[in-house]
Amino acid sequence: MIRAGLFGGTFNPVHFGHLRTALEVMEGFGLDHIHLIPTANPPHKDKKALADDSDRFAMLSLAIDGAPGFSISDAELKRPGRSYTIDTVRQLTHSFPASTQCFLIMGLDAFMEIDTWKDYARLFEEISFIVMSRPEDRNTILNDGFTGIGEFLQKTVSSGYVYKKKENCFLHETLMPVNLFDVTALGISATAIRELIRKGRSIRYLTPEPVISYIYDKGLFA
Ligand code: ATP
User: What is the whole-number distance in angstroms between the Cα of residue 60 and the centre of ligand 1?
Assistant: First the structure.
């Protein structure tokens, strides 16, 4: 059985917050592969601030160069129209060997908005989740242990989800598991990186050096 993680994002640009957490999830869940999936036309983000598809793909390639188990999927970049996760999950899971167990990886912030996604209920029928919590999440949504996400799951997906403390996971009799995973607190965001560039400040130590050089060479986000 091969275990694969699907980790989508705008990666505008990719940064150590993405990379470190992806690695921790990979090790924590014994995944053989993590597929980073840059989104082409995200329904929830401002397209104006988005670097070209080819630049975001190139920055990701530089960032994961030589990293075992990491790869980039151009599934969303190549598919015309808006990028919907349900379509990507179906496309990729069908392209993998049948014995592959897939996990959809996302931050808690993204997960808590999942009810705005196309066919979100179907996702819970088709793929297991790994939801990563970040520092800022802990101060807001997670004040009450996992009450926030538990209530959300039960209200918006199914009241049959039950939290299992030992596994740190929500299980359901018929739907797929929603695993929770605490990742190292790296308070880095692509928004903050773009803002620093606009202000002429350094972005060193926030993303790998080759990504920084690429950004400056191409004059991105200035
Ligand atoms: P932006 O600031 O432009 O909104 P972002 O830095 O949040 O972007 P995305 O590409 O939108 O990055 O994120 C893709 C996924 O990575 C999301 O599920 C998000 O929760 C997660 N993520 C982003 N930054 C971090 C971080 N510092 N630590 C852990 N997960 C992160």
Answer: 14
Amino acid identity, position 130: I
Q: Which residues line ligand 1 (CB under 6 A)?
A: 9-12, 17-18, 21, 106-107, 109-110, 132, 134, 183, 186, 188-191
Structure tokens at 94: 């069908």
Q: Give dist(CA 179, CA 187) in Å, integer.
A: 22
Which atom of ligand 1 lies at the shortest distance from residue 186's CA? 27
Residue 145 reports pLDDT greater than 60: no
- Residues with Cβ within 8 Å of 198's Cβ and at least 6 positions away in sequence, in order, are 221, 222
Distance 173 CA to ligand 1 centre (A): 31
**HSE of 22 in the Cβ direction (CA atoms, 13 Å)?**
29
* Atom number in ligand 1 closest to CA 16: 27
Q: Among the CATH numbers 3.40.50.2300, 3.40.190.10, 3.40.50.620, 3.40.50.300, which is that of 2-188? A: 3.40.50.620
What is the predicted pLDDT for the residue at 163?
Answer: 86
User: Which pTM value belongs to this model?
Assistant: 0.91
